[in-house]
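Hey, quick one: can you model this chain's 3D structure?
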Amino acid sequence: MVHSTLTPVFVGLRTGLHVLFATLLALVVVRVAVVGGPWALPSLVLAAAFGAVYLLGARIARAAEGRRSRAGVLWLVGLTVLWTALLVLVPEAAYLVFPLFFLYLHVLPRVVGPVAVVVATAVAISAIGVHGGFTVGGVVGPVVGAGVALLIGLGYRALAREAAEREELVAELLATRDRLAATEREQGVLAERARLAREIHDTVAQGLSSIQMLL
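Sure thing. Here's the predicted structure for all 215 residues.
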């Protein structure tokens, strides 16, 4: 990401996303450890794989800042597959959809990102309903989370676009300043050459005039 006055904002948002992801994944692991059951071990394995893929792929997503990376898209697809598998075993895994919302909006193209958010919201609501029945909270929670993620994601893109435009403007101004400075130096050199030429011309002319008068 290009450094600008908005860089601390972007760093804060990224750090908050990592903290949110770690917190929700820890909640899933604690729930599996407390409840136990025959699916406890597969659930823990999926949770560990989900966390490992996230950590390994976060570097790819960061490298893809400001552009669309095929590796980043593939990483996000794999992360979604692991989340879906974990969702089948652990209903609390539905909460992990919230950090996925921001990843969809950040990594995927403009149109695909919001569509992925809507699909993930429907998957999370369906999983919650299958595990514990459909309730108002089970429906409203993911929907509100998706709405908030869309607003923050669109705001993030607007800030990033504004920062990029500002950086381009500053670069153009600096380049113009350098060109003006070079032009001024060149004009100064030409003016000095003209002054020396006039002085030499005047000196030679005066010398010739003096010689002519003496002759």
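One thing worth noting: The two ends are 80 Å apart (CA to CA).
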